[in-house]
Amino acid sequence: MKILRLDVENIKKIKAVHIEPKGSTVILGGRNEQGKSSTLDAIMMALAGGRSIPTMPVREGAESGRVEIDLGDVIVTKTIRPDRKFSLSVEMKLADGGTAKISSAQAWLDAKIGELSFDPLEFLKKSPKDQADTLRALVGIDTTAIDADRAEAYQDRTAVNRDVAALTAQVAAAPYWPDAPAALVSTQAVNEELAQARKSNEARRQIVREMENLQRNHEQSNARLRELAETALSRVAAAEAEITRLQAVVVAAKNEAQALTVQRRQEDITYEDNIDELQRQLATTPEVAEDPIIAQFQEVEVINKGERQHRPAKIGGQFSHAQGQGRGPDGRNTAT
């Protein structure tokens, strides 16, 4: 049984998901709380019974959720309400392209899922015979013919032993004549009986050989099945260890996210405090008009420039006037 198509709507954190696997493996990736686990839960809700439906199965705000799975031969559709009540439909695909609904849909699914599942703990509780039957069913080995041959050989051996016991009783009950003649007696009848006995014994030896072969094959089969069971249990243990590791990773990630959230909130508080302080400083610092000061600075520059142009040159410690000196209209000394 293989999932050929999966459609999920309004289940847990999922709004809508459509998956059509292109190979033997499908990888669900994404950030936390993006719906990866919800996708797997949706598959379990669709295939398992009501006990698989969690307390809040439907996406918040939706009136119902829906899961549809195409398993190749059948299409499973389950509609779930927020109160965990649901409707289930299993439709068998027909050769003409149509479908036919399967009655007792959940019982049919439980039987199919049970055929494909393997519970190690339940397996260990079974008798050796039931364990062997379970493993043969899982790996697809049919020992019906071998079991029938063994049963037939066992019956033949039982019949031979019964005949031997009867002959032994006959020999024990045969009369004994102490005065039997000492002369040679014809051995033809004895030889015939001996030949018959040898034939019977050869048949018994053949049966024993067949039984030994059957037993050897049975022991080899059991050894291989035990090895498969141990491998399966090892895989279960490895999967459980991986689950434990992933749970630890999830806890660490959640702790880190909580710590970062606390740090972000603290930085927000510090930022708001700094902004408030700067706003208070801004409110107490007066804004001064710069244009009048610039104009005054430019006037001073003009005055200084005029002073430099009319200042006499100093030569040898004395001022010399090229043509004469006087005062300008602004009252400063001028040289010509």
What are the salient characteristics of this protein?
336 residues; alpha+beta; Rossmann fold; 6-stranded antiparallel β-sheet; two-stranded antiparallel sheet; 7 helices; 10 strands; 15% strand; disordered C terminus
SSE topology:
Blueprint: E1 5-11, E2 14-19, H1 36-47, E3 65-70, E4 74-80, E5 86-93, E6 99-101, H2 105-116, H3 120-125, H4 128-139, H5 144-173, H6 188-284, H7 291-310, E7 313-315, E8 318-320, E9 325-327, E10 333-335
Antiparallel strand pairs: 1-2, 1-3, 3-4, 4-5, 5-6, 7-8, 9-10
Helix pairs in contact: 5-6
* Number of E strands: 10
| Average pLDDT level | 82
Structural shape: elongated
CATH class descriptor name of one domain:
Alpha Beta
Count the helices. How many?
7
Strand order of the largest sheet: 2-1-3-4-5-6
Would you tell me the structural class of the helices and strands?
Answer: alpha+beta
Biggest pleated-sheet summary: 6 strands, antiparallel
Q: Calculate Rg over CA atoms.
A: 52 Å
- The run of helices and strands is EEHEEEEHHHHHHEEEE
In CATH, the architecture of one domain is 3-Layer(aba) Sandwich
**According to CATH, what is the topology of one domain?**
Rossmann fold
Low-confidence stretches: 314-336
What percent of residues adopt helix (DSSP H or I)?
Answer: 55-70%
CATH superfamily placement of one domain: P-loop containing nucleotide triphosphate hydrolases
From the N-terminal CA to the C-terminal CA, the straight-line distance is 116 Å
The fraction of residues in strands falls at 5-15%
